[in-house]
Design goal:
The chain has about 250 residues and is of the alpha/beta class. The chain has 9 helices and 5 strands. The longest helix is centred in the last third of the chain and has 23 residues. The structure holds flavin mononucleotide.
Length: about 250
């Protein structure tokens, strides 16, 4: 199995060491192959804020760099570990820029067949939830198998350190077990509603968001998913509700 690790740290220290531990736990499964991608070392330019990827399509992005290469790597991996330190209660600029460059996936999700682990390393608990939530956005339409937060405060006692090691091992195992299962990931109810609201509004936003319109016009759903009668009714009710709120400017 191919595991792609994307690291948003500005240095090769705590975050890298934590992923190496996970890799170590996975070594007992001989079919695991790790590839590391350090955002600090690749050609990945800063988002210019032009909005073109969102409005007219990601293929129109004026920046020429390794973005598509990374997309190919993500899509050809069996599992992806997104790893970042916590900087001032969120991810550092390097990782945030990475996420911003994929802002179009907030409108047109991707990575439906991908499986992710979200890893945050931090000095303390402060801000780790927010950092993890931000990093999780990068998983787009894929499945987040598990989220892990690892602390490296110098004052951590031995008991807490051992407890943390157990958590890392457990999360490594959870990741492995899910990747080994051959069942496809099923989108959540919230995601189904989200899709339907975007589809419903893409027609009226056709002039300023043509990429969304083209993306949604012939889709029943992002992937082939069968809904039973009750699910269809519930998705329908929530779609009407949220579409109304969007149209009235409440969301
Ligand atoms: C600029 C900066 C901001 C940080 N902000 C926080 C923070 O808000 N909360 C926290 O608990 N740790 C914070 N830390 C500590 C790092 O999250 C922690 O040491 C992390 O494991 C570093 O990972 P790295 O070695 O991969 O860079 C910060 C570190 C730096 C350099």
């Amino acid at each position: 199995m191919k595991i792609l690790v994307i690291i948003g740290s500005l240095r090769k220290k705590n975050t890298y060491k934590t992923v190496k531990k996970i890799e170590e736990y996975h070594k007992e499964y001989s079919d695991f192959k790790y590839e590391y991608l350090f955002l600090k070392d690749i050609d990945f330019k800063q988002c210019k804020g032009c909005f073109v990827c969102i409005s007219h399509g990601e293929d129109k992005c004026p920046l020429q760099d390794d973005r598509d290469l990374i997309i190919n790597k993500i899509e050809s991996s069996d599992g992806v570990i997104l790893a970042s330190p916590n900087y001032v209660m969120n991810v550092p600029w390097l990782m945030k820029n990475f996420i911003d460059r994929f802002a179009y996936t907030m409108h047109r999700p991707k990575f439906f067949n991908q499986y992710f682990m979200i890893l945050i390393t931090s000095g303390s608990y402060m801000g780790t939830k927010q950092a993890s939530k931000t990093l999780g956005l990068m998983a787009s339409g894929g499945e987040i198998i598990t989220k892990l937060t690892v602390f490296n405060s110098p004052g951590m006692n031995e008991k807490k350190r051992l407890k943390q090691e157990k958590v890392i091992k457990k999360k490594a195992s959870t990741f492995y077990k899910r990747l080994s299962k051959k069942t496809d990931h099923r989108p959540s109810f919230g995601f189904l509603v989200w899709f339907s609201v975007f589809k419903a509004t893409s027609n009226e936003n056709k002039a300023h968001l043509p990429a969304d319109y083209n993306f949604y016009k012939n889709k029943n759903y992002f992937i082939d998913v069968k809904l039973n009668f009750i699910q269809k009714i519930l998705v329908g009710i929530f779609t009407v509700l949220f579409t109304t709120l969007v149209r009235k400017g409440f969301i």
